[in-house]
Amino acid sequence: MSANIVIGTEAQGQPTEIDIKELLATRLLVQGNSGSGKSHLLRRLLEESAPIVQQIVIDPEGDFVSLAEEFGHVVIDGAAYGEAEIARLGARIRQHRASVVLALDELEIDSQMKCAAQFLNALFDAPREQWFPALVVVDEAQMFAPAAAGEVSEEARRISLGAMTNLMCRGRKRGLAGVIATQRLAKLAKNVAAEASNFLMGRTFLDIDMVRAADLLGMERRQAETIRDLGRGEFLGLGPAIARRPVKTRIGSVKTGAKSVTPGLMPLPTASTEELRELLHDNLHVEPERPEFPRPAPRARVEMEDLDDAISSGPAGEALPPRPERPEPEPEETRAAMVEIMNAMAADEDCTFQSSTTLFQDFTIRCRMKGISVRGLDATMFRRGFAAAIAGIEDPEDERWVDLINLAKHVPDDALAPFYMIARAAMDEKPCPDDNELARIYGTSSPRRVQRLLDYLEKDGLIVVRTDFSGKRSVGLPDLGVSTVAIEA
């Protein structure tokens, strides 16, 4: 099967081809002002390469959902799922190699960024055996990787920028080839744009964007103005997957259409000026009709003293039966109930892949359903208690765990659950959990992140990892004087 597709034609009529195999290794950046044909280019690229490679489209405007009808893409409505469900969908997409369109048009910009980040992280964290090649197309990439903070929250910007950086900087080894499109290079984070080796530059008018585009294309700055003269649907292409020198190409036709269309001209109304004036001013001063209701007769004035007497002597003033008082639980009972709820939540295998905010909200709802007040518990206390529950420490205040809990005060919140799991195995004289189990506890599918976690804990003096000459690994906790049983890593 040929891996080359035709995206357009040059001025001499020669076809402009893109080598998909090379594109998977080198990534692509598309730039063009609104109306330059940027989305049309992406659609052409997707349609021509659909039979060749898996495609994953991050679609903030819902323009690419029509690919489902012609090419069988699965459309995922981002507004219909929660964080954990989006993460599961991302994992299954890599497992089953499905071509999908993640439509985010029903979400606000903050939610779009968080949903896209959760989705991209799930693709990125897939296990090694699922690192199949896939094009990851992100339209309006400046929204998900902004160069500077804007009107969105700092949390949304941070997680979205991190996910986009992972896609462009480290996605290649995982089979993920980023294809990002932006209206303005100046608004796109430089560390994201810099990772692309192929470029398709469309019409742009601002000097800063023209100069940056010319630099990427290897053109002299005095030639940058040629980018301003490009027509709609015309792009300058350069890169190992396109051409070794900049080529001007006009993008070819497409089979599917976008939801949004460019407005065209329509005939003006044939009414005369006087007729239009009459239509605009007809009944302008008349308020909209409102239904008429019979007005009640005015009530007689009542003095305050008479009103007090009427209230106290009437049936409404009779003493109401006392509301049954709910017995206030003892502090020990409250704590035991909270521990029970945390243990029940920790029993869900996918709980570690949910955000701490979502988990804390779920916890508070469960507590209120059981009549338990959570006024004395903040999010930090919850995270540390929940980490103990995940590791199987059912009652952190048990005397057996006192030394461990005190030692864990020096461990960051996000690393606490794996640390507890290792410590518990050492105290029970059992083997250390394998990397896959620690990864699940850590909330990731990447064993490498677990290795970095162990390195961090060891550098901090909290654990000591020992591998003997036979390849068996054990993990010791010098502050507690315990160690896991040595087994092959």
TrEMBL record:
GO molecular function: ATP binding
InterPro entries in UniProt: AAA+_ATPase, ATPase_Atu1862_pred, HerA-like, HerA_central, P-loop_NTPase
Keyword ATP-binding: yes
Assigned keywords, A-Z: ATP-binding, Nucleotide-binding
Disordered: annotated span: 310-333
Domain of life: Bacteria
Feature: compositional bias, Basic and acidic residues: 323-333
Name of the protein in question: ATP-binding protein
Origin species: Novosphingobium aureum
Organismal lineage: Bacteria, Pseudomonadati, Pseudomonadota, Alphaproteobacteria, Sphingomonadales
